[in-house]
Specification:
Blueprint (H helix, E strand, L loop, with lengths): L1 H10 L3 H8 L6 E10 L5 E6 L7 H11 L4 E2 L1 E3 L2 E3 L1 E13 L5 E11 L1 E4 L15 E9 L11 E7 L4 H15 L3 E3 L2 E2 L2 E2 L2 E9 L9 E2 L15 E4 L4 E2 L2 E2 L12
Helix pairs in contact: 1-3
Length: about 260
């Protein structure tokens, strides 16, 4: 990782990155999404950032460099390792240095389906459901990226007064949103693989969100307790690629 930090420090001299990192009004962390191609040995062959209106080019270059160094458990088809394609999510954290510059630390790496389009999420109107709630649902995703809403199931419901009634109301609004949603799935051997994905939805809560619902989006996982999207292959004989990442803990200063 030392070569990465030298690379990050060099890029910090670029005006767009330096001004962004130094601004107290902007978050010092950013999740970057990349579409990556992986060979049968689990090595990234290419990485391309997905469109982002708030993209910082210097951070994109850092993310590409990091992606090319991360190992994967390769995809498998009928027991044999094969090439694959997935979406990789990298959370980069800006950390101040004693000389006034900023270093960049890779805080999290995960991979899975990419949310191409998320249907509008309208929270339940029932007054008894105004509190904070987290609902994780299991959703079958077809090879074309559309959800099979007939197979949606609840995996977890967290709220102050959980009940079958509350679960049903939240599930109604999630299913309605999924009808107009689409995902880009992993490809194994050049073919999109149907999956069963675990999608988290948060309703209510603080931070000025009011009664709005928050759809699953890995870009919004920084500092949040919302779990990320998880997936497993729904096609017999096919295993999806998984990034191998161990977080580095920044040592605390004594005194």
């Amino acid at each position: 990782m030392s070569s990465f930090f030298r690379f990050a420090l060099l890029l910090s001299l670029c005006l767009p990155f330096a001004s962004w990192a130094a601004s107290p009004d902007l978050a010092r962390e950013k999740t970057i999404s990349l579409r990556v191609q992986i060979d049968a040995a689990g090595k990234v062959q290419s990485a391309q950032p997905l469109p982002d209106p708030e993209a910082v080019e210097a951070l994109n270059r850092i993310a590409i460099g990091l992606a090319q160094k991360l190992p994967f458990t390769p995809a498998r088809k009928d027991g044999a390792a094969v090439a694959s394609e997935t979406t990789l999510y990298l959370k980069l954290v800006m950390e101040p240095k004693p000389d006034g510059q900023f270093g960049v630390r890779l805080a999290q790496a995960s991979n899975g389906p990419h949310v191409v389009k998320m249907g509008r999420l309208r929270p339940p109107e029932n007054k008894g459901l105004r509190g904070r709630a987290l609902l994780v649902v299991s959703v079958p995703l077809r090879a074309d990226g559309t959800p099979d809403t007939a197979g949606v199931k609840t995996e977890k419901l967290e709220m102050k007064d959980a009940s079958a009634f509350a679960e049903a109301r939240y599930m109604d609004t999630i299913v309605a949103s999924l009808h107009d949603s689409r995902f880009e799935l992993d490809k194994v051997g050049g073919v999109a693989v149907p999956t069963r994905a675990s999608l988290p939805y948060q309703f209510g809560g603080g931070g000025g969100r009011g009664g709005r619902g928050q759809a699953p989006d890995k870009k919004d996982d920084g500092g949040s307790s919302i779990p990320g999207i998880q997936e497993v292959s729904d096609q017999p004989g096919v295993e999806l690629p998984k990034v191998i990442f161990v977080a580095q803990v920044t040592p605390k200063k004594e005194g």
